[in-house]
Amino acid sequence: MTILNTAILGLQWGDEGKGKIVNFMAGNFGAACRYQGGHNAGHTLIVNGKKIVLHLLPSSICHKDSLSLIGRGVVISYDALFSEIEEISQHTSGIADRLKISPACVLIQPYHKLVDLYREKSNNQKNIGTTLRGIGPAYEDKVARRAIRVVDTLDEKQLRPLLEETLDFYNFSIEKFFGKEALSLSNLIDENLAFGEKVKPLLADVSMLIKQLNFKEKSVLFEGAQGALLDIDQGTYPFVTSSNCSPSGIAAGAGCGPLDVQNILGVVKAYVTRVGEGPMPTEIHDELGDYIAKTGGEVGATTGRLRRCGWFDAVLMNRIIQTNSIKGLCLTKIDVLDGLDEIKVCKAYADDETDTTFGECMDLDNVKPIYETLTGWKSPTKNLTNFDKFPQEAKDFISYIENICEVPVKIISTGPDSESTVLR
Length: 424
Ligand code: IMP
Fold this sequence. Notes:
Number of domains: 3
Bound molecules: inosinic acid
Strand order of the largest sheet: 7-5-2-9-1-10-13-16-17
CATH architecture of the largest domain: Alpha-Beta Complex
Order of helices and strands: EHEEEEEHHEEHHHHHEHEEHEHEEHEHEE
CATH superfamily of the largest domain: Adenylosuccinate Synthetase, subunit A, domain 3
Distance between the termini: 22 Å
CATH class of the largest domain: Alpha Beta
CATH topology of the largest domain: Adenylosuccinate Synthetase, Chain A, domain 3
Strand content: 15-25%
Radius of gyration: 22 Å
Structural class: alpha/beta
Number of helices: 13
Number of strands: 17
């Protein structure tokens, strides 16, 4: 058997429906592996008719024959991890046997969450609209080489001096800059050590596990969180998350070589959504935007915030597809557009002046979308499982996207259930 390690990642601003696709495909893989982000993600699955929302656990977690890996590029909140394990254990058994976590993961500490919150609430800082989970500050610590990692919580002698120094740094800014109450070192040490004991049985060398699985001819599915337009390097900076959600994050965050990813599939919605601040050229500001949000259930799975909605932006997608070695698309939520008279796709930006800066800087504030208007379809695509049954206008919409994005649409999702999926 040929190894086909495959990445499934979002190409827009997150919430593209990656969880459903990973859960749908996971049974064919030896493992699914999260490689970046933290519990800022919100991956919704329907398993046996029940809705499950995952934030940190890989979307393969309900598959009894696949491992679920958390690679070293993920930032972990112990609190969030163990609450999620407890909650998901109500839906599936044996999680502890299938979940493997890298001891090199950086931990999100309570001071990260506080600083994220204080910054977002403070008028002095640019408001990003973060998920307030402490993600950015935890990654800052990693790069500043003062992070507490999972491995540090296994031994008090290792943990104490590290935490003492890092907490000094944070307490200084918590007290002097934000004017709030300092955190207690002893409480933090006790909490971290208790969680360290609890996490021990789940730890594994994820990097070598991937190698071993491949050696046994089992492929691995790499599960991206957020989306390429939120990637710290190629997204709409500074309105981005703090990790590489795109394929460039896989080798570093999962612990494999760049050539160990043979297939990269991008998940895109048939329209676009965004939560938080930042540019969104095709945003729909009238009641049609509200209609799409309502019909598509566009409410953040992590934060409960309403998502901004817009038309499919093929200019951005084409760039992201070409620069990320995307081999095929999974098109989700096409059924949300059922019944609309017209459907627009942004095929170009009008403003030539800004075209020179749009590119690596993603300066999208002043671009003006030019739309192709396609005829909507009157008979529904909802829950269809056979492409031949699609109304012709929906087929035309998909062909248009394939042509302009220059990649095939390989999977189409027509509803939240696993069964509502078309493989092409
Ligand atoms: P952070 O990741 O919490 O630091 O938030 C940074 C930006 O990324 C904000 O605009 C968030 O709304 C956005 N973001 C983070 N995680 C997700 C996600 O899973 N889906 C959609 N947006 C996200």
